[in-house]
Amino acid sequence: MTLPEQAIPARRGLRFSPTLTAGLILVGLHIAIALLTLFWTPYDPASTAGGRLEPPSWSHWAGTDRLGRDFFTQIMIGSRIALVVGAGAVAIGAAIGVTIGLLAAFATRFLDDALAATLDILIAFPTLLLAMLVVAASDSASLWTAILALGIAMSAIVARLTRILAKRVLRNDYIAASRTAGTSWPGVVAMHVLPNIWPTLAVSFALQFGLAIIAEASLSYLGLGTPPPNASWGRLLQEAQGTVYTAPIGAIAPGIALVTLVIGINLIADGLRDVADPV
Amino acid sequence: MLLRLLPGDPANALVSVGADPAQIEAAREQVGSNLPLGEQFLRFLGSLARFDLGTSFISGVPVSAEIADRLAVTVPLTVLSFLLAILIAVPLGIVAAVKADRWYGAAISVVSQLGIAIPVFWVGILLVSIFAINIRLFPSGGFPSRGWADPSGALYALVLPILTIAVVMSSSLLRYVRSATRDVLGSDYLRTARALGETFPQALMRHGVRNGSAPIISILGIELASTFLGAVVVERVFSLPGLGSMLLLGIEQRDYPNVQGVLFVSTLLVLLIGFSADLAQRLIDPRLRDRAAGARS
Amino acid sequence: MTGPVFNGHLNQRRNVRTLAALSLVVALSASAAFPAAAQEDYDPDATVRIGSLYEPQNLDNTAGAGQGVSEVFNSNVYEPLFRLTDDGNVEPVLASDYSISEDGLTYTIKLHPNVTFHSGDPLTAQDVKFSIERVVAPESKSSRKNSLATISAIETPDDQTVVIKLSQRSISLPYNLSYVWIVNDAATSFTTSADGTGPYRLDGRRRGSGISLSRFDDYWGDAPTNKEVVFSYFTDATALNNALLTNAVDIITSVQSPDSLALFKDNPDFTVTEGQSTTKEVLAFNDRVEPFSDPRVRKAISRAIDKSKLLNSIWGEYGTLIGSFVPPTDPWYVDLTGVDPYDPETAKALLAEAGHPNGFSFNLDTPNYDPHPIVAQFVKSELAKVGITVNINIITANEWYTKIYQAHDFQATLQEHVNHRDIVFYGNPDFYWGYNNPEVIELIKSAEASATTEEQVEKLTTANRLIAEDAASVWLYLYPQIVVSANNVTGYPVNGLNSQFFVYDIRKN
After folding, report:
1. Which residues of C are less than 8 Å from A139 in CB distance?
2. Cβ contact (<8 Å) for B129 and A248?
3. Could B118 and A255 be called an inter-chain contact, meaning their C-beta atoms sit closer than 8 Å?
4. What span, in angstroms and rounded, lies between the C-alpha atoms of C451 and C461?
C-alpha cells in the first residue's frame, strides 16, 4: 500500500464509485436483516416445532436443523452476531492499537524500538492463533471473550500502522511550529495527527472488520467461539458438517451469508482506499 | 507464562471418572502443577537452554519427538500448498493486470475477491463434499499411520488439504501480484525498454520480473508464515496429525509442555521465514542492499 | 459356595454360550455377536483397518489415556485374568481355574501354563501380583481403583498360583479384575510401549494418526484370523464416515451420527449392525443445592422434556429411551420409562407444589463437544415451556473435571456415561451429582457383599427403582451402538461393551 506523502485533507466528500456502492448495498442488506431480527424473525429461533433436517421449502427457505428449528431464522440471526463481533473487535482493536501506536510514535527511541520489535513478532502470528490463546486463557467461551480475543489480536496490526503513520506526520515542519506556538502533545494528536491518519486507518479498520468475521467463524468452527444458542455462522457450519450427506443446504447457506458480508466489507474498504489514497 | 495462567489443571486430563482426591494429588505431583508458577516457568526456561522441550504430561512422549513427527505433516502441507498457490497466483495475477480490460482479466479479479472472503474451513467442507462424498476421488481426512513410509498414501491424504489452502492463499497472493504488475506496467523503465525496441514480453521478463518480485517476496514471507500457523484449522477439517492439531489438543488438555513446545518451534520457524524473505529480497534488489548499508528510515 | 467353579480351556472364545452358565451376569443374545460368521472364505494374512474417533492419549490404562486405550489393547495386546465378553459375560482368560473360599474372602487362581509375553518372558504369578498392585497403587489413575479396594493381600505360593485375599465379600471381583491388564513386571514403560500376553504385539504408533498391531506368533491360545490390525484415528465423525466410503478403513467401531447411515444402509457394499449400548446421555443436577434438592423439581424437569423427540433429533430412528441409569444389558434393568413420562401439565403442577409456580432459572454447564451443545439447546427450549429459564454455559472437558467433578461447583450439567454397571455411582454421596439416599447407599453396598448373584440382582434392581422414582438425574437416552463395515469383513464385536473391540476373530476376504 502506498501512503500519501503529504497530509491529505480529511474531508473531500465521498465519491460513490461502483465498488463502494456495491459494498454498501451488501453490507446494508446485512445490517437491515440484523436490525430486523431484533423485532421479528420468520420463526421463534428456539422453536423446535419443525421436523428433523427438513429440506428447503416455501415454509422453511433453508430447511430445518436437527432440532427442527428454522435454519433461515438462524442464518438471519447470524448476521447480527457477525456484525456485533466485527464491530466489537474493531472497536477494541482500534482503542488499544491506536493508543499503543501513538505512544510508540511519541516515545523515546529505546521504548519505540522495543515496541516496534514486539509488534513485528506479534504480527507474524495470525489473528486466529492469538485469539485462540486468549480464548483458551479465559474461563468459559462467550460472545464477549470471542470479541475481546479478536480485538486484542487485531490491536497489534492497528498499533503498527498507527505508529508508522503518526511518525510520518510528526516529521512535518508544521508540527514543530505548532509545538513552538505552545500546543501540548495531546493537542498535537487531536489537531494534526488524528485528522491526517484517520482515512488510512479507516481503510485498515474495514479490512480488519472482514477478517474479524472470518476469524470468529473459524473460532466457532473449532468450538472456541460464540457458544449456543447464539447462531454464529461458524458454529452452524460446524454442526452441519456432520449432516452434509442428508442436508447439504446446512453446509452451504451460512457460508454464502458469510461470504456476501465479507465481500461487501472488502468492497467498502477498496472504495474507501480510492477516496483516501487516490492513485 | 500466559499458558500457566490458564484455568484448569493438567492433572485433570490424567484422571478418569471415579478418581479420589488422593489420586488427583498424585497426578498433580507427577506433572508438577502443584509447584508455584514461577518455579514451573523457571524449570521450563532451564530445560529450553538444554534444548530439551520436556515430556508431554499426557502421552509420556518427549515433546521434541512428537513435534518432529507432526512437522512431517505440517511442513509438506504448508510448502506444497504454498508452491501450488504461487503456481496459480503468479500467472493469473499478471494476466489480471495486463489484460484488465478483457473479460477474463476482470473475471480473475472478481474470483480473487471471492477467494479472500471465504473462510478456509468452508473451502475444506465444500471440497470434501464435492470430491470425497460425491465423486469419491480423494480421502476426506486422516493420515496413514505409517506416515511417509507409505508415500503414495500420505500424498493422497494431503491432496484435498493442499487444494483447500492453495485456493484461499492464491486469492490473496494474486491481488499482490496484480498490483505489483500494475506498478511495473506503469513504470518508466518498461516504457524505455519498449522504446528501445524490445517486445512487450521481453521487456516484462528482463526488467519487470526482477523489479516486481522484491515486494512480492516480502509478502510471500508473511503469507508462508501465516499458512504454516493457519494450518491449524485445515488440520482440524481433515483430521490431520499436524502441529496445529497438537496445539489444539494441548490447549484442551492443558498439556503445557506440548503447547509451549509448539509455540516455541513455530515462533522459531516464523522468525526464520521472515529472515529468509528479507535476505532473498536483498539478493534480488541491489537498491535494498545499498539502503540497508545507509541510514535506516 | 466352595470348590472349583470353572475349568478353563483354550477355546473359550468360541464357546460363549457354555460360559453363560457360570457367568455373573445374564447373557445377551450371543447370536448377535458375530454377524454372518458363516463366511469361511478368508485371507489369514489380511490387514484389517479400523477407523475410530477415540485415540488413546498414551498406552497405559492406569494413566488417564481415555476410552480408546481399552479399544486397542483389551484382550488384543494385554489380557486380563477375566474378561467381559462382548455379550456381557465374564469369562476367565489367563485364569485356567479358580476357587473361592466359603466365606468369600479368598480367591485362589491358577494361571494357564506356557503363557509368554511378547518380549519372550514367561507369565508368572509375580506378574499378576505386580499388575493388580499397579492398578491399586496410590499413583494409579484407574477409575476401578475404588472397586478393587477390598483386596487386602495378594500371595504367590508358586509361579502358577495367585491367592487374592479380601477384607469383605466382593461378588464383582472377577468383573472388576477384567479392568486389570496383566503386564510384565520387568517392563520399564507402560505409557509409550507395550508388552502383553495377547494375540497381537504393538507394532507402531503415530500420535494423531494411528496404532498398528501385528499377530504374535507365539500366542498361547488360538491364532487370530488376520495378520495385522491398524487403528486409524479421526477427530471428526464425517471424515471417519468418508474414510469408510472411500475404502480407507474397513470398519467403524462406533458411528456417532445417524446421518451417514443411510448411505451405508442402502449400499450392498456395507454392513450396518446395531448392537447393545451402555452409553447414557445424562442431565445431572447437583442434588445438594436448591432447588434440585427437591425430588419434585427434578421430576418436573424430567416430565417437561420430550425425550423421544430429543432422541429422534440426535439419532433419527436409532437409540433407546431409558427411565433410569441402567441400560437393558445390566441384569438389574427394569423398564422405568413410565415413572416420569413426558407430560408438561403435571410438570407444571409439580413445580407449583414445590413452590416454583413461576419457574426459576439455572445454569447448565455443557461440555463443548457433540452432542452436548445441541442437547442443551433442546433442554432450554423444552424447559422454557414450563417457565424454567436455562442459561447454557459451554465448558471444556478439562473444566468439567475441575468445576463439576472435583469442586461440585454447578447447578446442572450434561455428560455421557459410557460404562457398564455404573449404577454404583448413585451409592456414593460424594460423587459429583451428590445424590444422597441412605436406602440406596445401603442397598448398593450390601449388593456387593452378596453371597449369590440372585441376591445382588435383587438389591440392585430395588436401588434402580428408587433412583428412578427420586429422579436422581434425568436420563435422556441411551446411545445406539452401531458398527459399520465393508461387507468383506466379518467376525467383529458389535456391542463394544466398556469400549472394548476384540479384533482376533475378524476375517477379511
Report:
1. 399
2. yes
3. yes
4. 16
3-state class percentages of chain C: helix first, strand second, coil last, to nearest 5:
25, 25, 50
Q: Is the pLDDT of residue B239 over 80?
A: yes
Cell numbers placing C346: 403435571
Which residues are CB-contacts of B16 (< 8 A; sequence separation ≥ 6)?
C64, C66, C141, C142, C143
Residue A39 phi, psi dihedral angles, 5° rounding? -110, -35
From CA B221, how far away is CA A124, in angstroms rounded?
A: 9
- Kindly report the CA angle at B22 between B254 and B257, in degrees rounded to 5? 20
User: Rounded to 10 degrees, what is the CA torsion of C484, C489, C490, C495?
Assistant: -30
Omega before C429 cis (within 30°)?
A: no
User: Under an 8 A CB cutoff, do A255 and B226 touch?
Assistant: no
- For residue C56, give the 3-state DSSP assignment: coil
Q: Which fold has domain A68-276?
A: MetI-like fold (1.10.3720)
- Give the number of residues written for chain A: 279
Q: Convert the pLDDT of each residue in C472-489 to its tens digit.
A: 999 999 999 999 999 999
Going across the sheet that includes C151-158, the strands are C4-7, C95-100, C106-111, C161-166, C151-158
Query: What is the rounded CA–CA span in Å between residue C508 and residue C208?
Result: 26
Strand bridging mode C95-100 / C90-92: unpaired
Domain ranges of chain A: 68-276
Mean pLDDT, chain B, rounded, equals: 76
Terminal Cα-to-Cα distance of chain C (whole angstroms): 48
Amino acid making up residue A166: A
Nearest CA in chain C to B243: C208
pLDDT-derived band at A172, boundaries 50, 70, 90:
confident
Size of interface A-C (CB pairs under 8 A): 65
Q: Is C378–A48 a contact, with Cβ atoms under 8 angstroms apart? A: yes
Backbone torsions φ then ψ of C229, nearest 5 degrees: -130, 130
Backbone angles phi, psi at C24, to 5 degrees: -90, -5
Chains that touch A (3 or more CB pairs under 8 A): B, C
- Coil, strand or helix at A100: helix
C257, C373, C392: residue with CB nearest A242: C257
The A-side interface with B (CB below 8 A) comprises 121, 124-126, 128-129, 132-133, 136-137, 139, 210, 214, 217-218, 221-222, 234, 237, 241, 244-245, 248, 251-252, 255, 258-259, 262-263, 266-267
pLDDT one-digit tens code per residue, C110-143:
999 989 999 999 999 999 999 999 988 877 777 6
Ordered domains of chain C (ranges, CATH):
36-274+496-509 (3.40.190.10), 280-478 (3.10.105.10)
Select from A121, A36, A110, A134 the least CA-distant residue to A76: A36
Q: What global pTM score does this model have? A: 0.82
**C106 - beta bridge partners?**
C165
Bridge partners of residue C122, in order along the sequence: C116
pLDDT above 70 (res C107): yes
Q: How far, in Å, CA of C400 to CA of C413, rounded?
A: 9
B233 to each of A218, B120, C207, how far by Cα in Å? 7, 8, 18
ipTM of the complex, rounded to two decimals: 0.84
**pLDDT digits over C37-55, tens only?**
444 688 999 999 999 988 8
Amino acid at site B77: L
Render A142-167 in DSSP notation, one character per residue. -HHHHHHHHHHHHHHHHHHHHHHHHH
- When scoring C57, C365, C416 by the number of chain B Cβ atoms within 10 A, the one with the most, hence best to mutate, is C57
Q: Which helix (H) or strand (E) holds A33?
A: helix A18-39
Do the strands C228-233 and C389-395 form a parallel or antiparallel pair, or are they unpaired? unpaired
User: Which tens digits make up the pLDDT trace of A217-271?
Assistant: 988 888 787 777 778 899 899 888 878 877 888 889 999 999 999 999 999 988 8
For residue C14, the model assigns a pLDDT of 32
> Within 10 Å of residue C10's Cβ, how many Cβ atoms?
11
